[in-house]
Amino acid sequence: MSAPILQVRGLTKRYGARIGCAEVGFDLWPGEVMGVVGESGSGKSTLLACLSGHLAPDAGSVVWRRRDGAPVETLALPERDRRALMRSDWAFVHQNPRDGLRMGVTAGGNIGERLMARGARHYGAIRAAAADWLARVEIDPGRIDEAPRAFSGGMQQRLQIARALVTAPRLVFMDEPTGGLDVSVQARLLDLLRGLVRDLGLSAIVVTHDLAVVRLLAQRLMVMKDGRVVEAGLTDQVLDDPRHAYTQLLVSSVLQV
Amino acid sequence: MTGYTFAYLDEQTKRMIRRALLKAVAIPGYQVPFSSREMPMPYGWGTGGVQVTAACLTPEDRLKVIDQGADDTTNAVSIRSFFRKVAGVATTEATAEATIIQTRHRIPETPLAEGQILVFQVPIPEPLRFLEPRETETRKMHALADYGLMHVRLYEDIARHGAITRAYAYPVQVEGRYVMDPSPIPKFDNPKLHRSPALMLFGAGREQRIYALPPYTEVRSLDFEDYPFEPTKAGHACALCGDDASYLDEVIVDDAGGRMFVCSDTDHCRSRRAAGRRGTMAAPFEDAAA
Amino acid sequence: MYVAVKGGERAIAAAHAWLAEERRGDPAVPELSPDQIREQLRLAVNRVMAEGSLYDPDLAALALKQARGDAVEAVFLIRAFRTTLPRLAASRPLDTAAMACDRRISATFKDAPGGQVLGPTFDYTHRLIDFALAAGLPVPPAPVAPPQAGPMPHITGFLDREGLIRPEPPSDAEPPDLTRAPLALPADRALRLQALARADEGFLLALAYSTQRGYGSTHAFVGELRIGRVPVAVEIPELGLAVEIGEVELTECETVNQFAGSKSEPPQFTRGYGLALGMNERRTIAMALVDRALCARELGEDVGRGPAQDEEFVLSHCDNIQASGFLEHIKLPHYVDFQSESEGLRARRAAALAGREAAE
Lengths: 257, 290, 360
Prior knowledge:
heterotrimer, B: about 290 residues, seven-stranded mixed β-sheet, 7 helices, globular, C: about 350 residues, alpha+beta, 2 domains
């Protein structure tokens, strides 16, 4: 716990004259979950895309600490290493499970893909790992050979999480992981996520417009507006005693986010 | 034939193809783009193989052309007579006597030797094509050796059917690096790719790609440790020559759907019959050759 | 007892002899000469020249005769011949502004210098079968106007001067050659246009039509369509000057398309470009629409709105010689693959049936 797992400095992305995100910096510590909240258009999704390598920022630095403790500037990583990172130590959970799953591939194949990409070549072992993960995300392992199409929205999202976590990543990016789900389904998913994050000691960055999600999952919080971080701190502190006028609006639910 | 150079292609084109071939040999299994020419036969009918053969042929060569293992299938006949016409080279049906063998869909049963060249006609050179239709993406996947998706396909096969169902064009990995489509040969032939003493060249004309396996290259068919690759064939012996280890064609022999199995490699079958081997339905050898 | 089928060589020869007979048809009917095809089936000849990418009306007519009127087969003959031809020189860029126009119309301006010239067009004919043609009566001469003296500048030039249309920066870079280098993606516009210029007309037409129906709409007007002859000049290094070696008939179409502008560019018109050997009006308009649709990525427009915008899809499938060859190759023997498949299927069926019986 001696060093941050991720150090972000001066991250900036512009779309022409418009600012996507500007001068974002923070440290993420091992086992820590950081929430990023803001209205749509506040730059939180752009920030997540830049952090996770889906979008190339115009300026800034994202330093990742490898398992051996060596720091790596991820923005300078060659595509090959970036992809390797994305299928091993990093994982991404999309808002829409369709973006994170192969809809025509069975649940087992979906979970097994990252294992196979890392070189797993024992069918039985891959399948056992997939079945184990289905159970951990509360899907009946008997449905291992069904395609995600046959699953409900909540199940698809849980399958996506299993697919992302099967390689025991150290950092998970989540983009509105509970968006688009019914309230009751959301609650169950949040509960599951909180358990997994705690049990696996995951670090995570969770982008959401839903303050309930960050209150439940995140120890720390960044509030974004117009591409900039306007307030950051411990989640309870920020939510219970917001300093910035915008955060106050956000917390008082005046803003329809 | 007048008006055309030896082996049809002009010397510049042949040099261009040879450069691509050299690069292909230097990077086994890697698909080298080449500027395929329009040939006087349709794309999909062996234009890639024909261009590779044309670029390799010398007047001293002895050429064998097979399609489905047979020397007398119509497209093999057509390609052989093309080279007889435009290159005037000697042709043969005997695998052991040929210096260059152009093939579609088979590797001969007779083991190949050092110094021989086997030229494959390839319809779709990209083993990832049906997983990912975009060339721009598949080239990236090869460059990054990002082959997880390929194994997902094999996993799905086992999950759904209890076995890997790919019966031909079964993907292989070359020297632990590039995943390669061995052309639509039956998977029965895949083991013949591994450490073959012959040079193996693959030409895809329409898709403008050449790739190669230099002699003694390691070629592994993709599989799982607990579902190892199995080169299968029909569980019969050839009705003509009695061979129970060669790859067989199925022939329907009467209106009632009666069928027999015969060697797909016609040269192999004939040689065995010439040596006195008999299958259950064999005519005396002299009649069959008439 | 079984004797394997033999005699492929003889069967092929017999099939080809029969084909030759069929090509000739009833010998009681006079034989068509390539001249007759060239003169009287000129649009068929033009299509073969355009897609064969070889300007030779006599050869295209002969190819049509040999192909029994099958345009794709005739294009194939021309392509296979073309690839064997030596390259003696490259011409200087053709100046279509200097075209001696037989036809020139604009849908964007009612009149412009040079005027609207209808020329020999099917437009405004009533599509009624002319039974008199069957009788082969002589054609009365068409009225002749004195040739135009003044210049016939490109219509889009007027939009250029006003800055209303996106400028196309001139370049002296040597254009890529699709017939001498493998297609590399992403392709630049020069390479795309080259591919479209020899693409299958039916494919271009369908794609262009799809953009009009909203699959990647480009809101096109025909800024100008011109058909006529253009001189071809070749630089002779020994002489240090360019010499005219002949002329070719071309069809050129420039469409004027809407463009909403992007973060780096103001709203303006853009252009689609079509060019074909010979009088080839439909294909040239279609080409211009598809060209413009393919510019979507460079212009920063939304892509993925239709197949016509998808460069890899369009360029990989537009060539009818590649397409027809690969399509028709599935009639070649596939005994070996089929055998391999059917063995596998039999085994899986047996396993499935055994499983079902065991369950019962």
